[in-house]
């Protein structure tokens, strides 16, 4: 079974089972992120600085990678550590940092629903860079599967969940307050296209680095997250006055940071041993987890759009990974 078919070449049945378990865990963590973040709210607002959560997540990932090398979970390369191979990861950290900040900046030029729907274009940009940079060709069947993933994401974002106290379906954040009219400015559209391109490029570029370098994954992650911590430390310090680094943090917030850190490490393994396309399917399947947890924890109602999105995701998985 090839990477593009959803497996990892050369894995026996036990290791394939562990690979499947890793994908399921990553899907669950992706899906749990938004509901856990909602549980952190105090008086309807997140009580801590978003930059604090991002910085602590990067720092946690860095510490876990260092720990895995120190205790011998992954072998340290023989000879002098190849520090020169760390430099390319600076671009990965820069791309991820730019994308994380673009998400916040985009909200000024469009309403949340428009952003949620149109941001699914990053699936197409990731597939484009995957073919161009890694020289993989997708079949017509695989291309159709990715189109279905984009449609599923747009369908879910447009009305997969509904607040029981409202009559109009829509994203939870939009339903809880007076509805904002759908809009997007020309600058917002350009920034959204840039966001989708950077998202696809960052994912594929990082996959390329992880696969070309013959280094332990923990050491590669150590390089990446060192740059990530430095970048986000600068962004946090330059963000102006606000709550302290740990101010407003609760047990739920700590769980958000830990789950995001673990999920980041799982995703790096997916991209080294799988592909960026596998990552797209993990993120898309996490919509189902997100909806179920939102319904259970936040008392939101599942709508027909959710079930349609789930059906489209299932069809996409069957088309992409099913036998030809």
TrEMBL record:
Going by the UniProt record, its keywords in alphabetical order are: Membrane, Sugar transport, Transmembrane, Transmembrane helix, Transport
The family annotation for this protein states: Belongs to the nucleotide-sugar transporter family. SLC35A subfamily.
**Which protein, by its recorded name, is this?**
UDP-sugar transporter protein SLC35A4
Tell me a GO cellular component.
Golgi membrane
Q: How does it sit in the membrane?
A: Multi-pass membrane protein
Family matches, as Pfam families = Nuc_sug_transp
Residues passing through the membrane, by range: 20-42, 54-76, 88-106, 144-162, 182-205, 217-237, 249-268, 280-298, 304-322
Where on the tree of life does the source sit, at the highest rank? Eukaryota
Q: Name one GO molecular function term.
A: pyrimidine nucleotide-sugar transmembrane transporter activity
Name where it's found.
Golgi apparatus membrane
State the organism named in the record.
Answer: Muntiacus reevesi (Reeves' muntjac)
Read off the PANTHER family from this record.
Answer: NUCLEOTIDE-SUGAR TRANSMEMBRANE TRANSPORTER (PTHR10231)
Query: What SUPFAM superfamilies does UniProt report for this protein, alphabetically?
Result: Multidrug resistance efflux transporter EmrE
Q: What is the lineage of its organism?
A: Eukaryota, Metazoa, Chordata, Craniata, Vertebrata
- InterPro entries, from UniProt? EmrE-like (IPR037185), Nuc_sug_transpt (IPR007271)
